Amino acid sequence: MKGIEDVYEVGIMMLLAFLSALMNAYLPLKETTLHFGLPGPAAGIAFFGGFTFVFWIFLAIEIIGRRLAAVVTALFTASFCMFLSPLWFGIASPPWFGAYGVLSLLSIAFFAELSTIPLHSGKSTSSEECCVAGGFAERSKVCRSIFGGFGNLSCLVISWLIMGYHTSTWIPPLYAPIYSIFAFISGFVGALLAHIVSPSCSYLLSRNVP
After folding, report:
1. Suppose 183 and one of 32, 122, 156, 193 were both cysteines; which one would form an S-S bond, judging by CB atoms 3.0 to 4.6 Å apart?
2. From CA 210, how far away is CA 207, in angstroms rounded?
3. Which candidate, 139, 181, 128, 162, places its Cα nearest to that of 9?
4. Cα 117 to Cα 139, 182, 189, 195, distances in angstroms
5. How many Cα atoms occupy the beta-carbon half-sphere of 72 within 13 Å?
6. 156 φ, ψ (degrees, to nearest 5)
7. pLDDT for 133-142, tens place per residue?
8. What pTM value is reported for the model?
9. What single DSSP character describes residue 108?
10. Predicted confidence band at 126 (pLDDT cuts at 50, 70, 90)?
11. Cα 45 to Cα 32: distance, rounded to the nearest angstrom
12. If pLDDT is split at 50, 70 and 90, which confidence band does 93 have?
């Protein structure tokens, strides 16, 4: 039944988003970067964003196989992050600063959705089958993973800009290109892992669906 499937898919997206938010909230990412003498802001995103955010958002669209699955998962992730840790980057002013967290995660979702667009414009784009058959199936796993790299990089750049604008804390120029490279690699690996584990996850999550 279509309705049951939709509810089940929303549940999967919520589960993946919650796991992502848990990792972001409770793993000592900031402490780890400080331990190695890596200055902020957003050093945690640069080095670990591929595993805390990109992996889960890309895994959602790989499993669900529908357009907007990445967007919905990103919105759920932002909501759970705000619930577990209400202050994005610990900043209380302006009070709406957490909205930037939504924007950052949606930038990852944008590239995840972009990776599903068919390579040939002549293909139909009216059904969810196009998301898989016309998008994923036409792209190699390396090609899809590149979108993950750009997704994490965009999240990092947005974080740098908003932190610089609101707190005047800018990434040291020497570290900016280094962090950018690592952010791309982290996102690439996160998306690649999502592709690798998605068949097993799809089987485990769907085996009991009516």
Report:
1. 156
2. 9
3. 128
4. 10, 26, 21, 16
5. 18
6. -65, -45
7. 445 555 677 8
8. 0.85
9. H
10. very low
11. 12
12. low
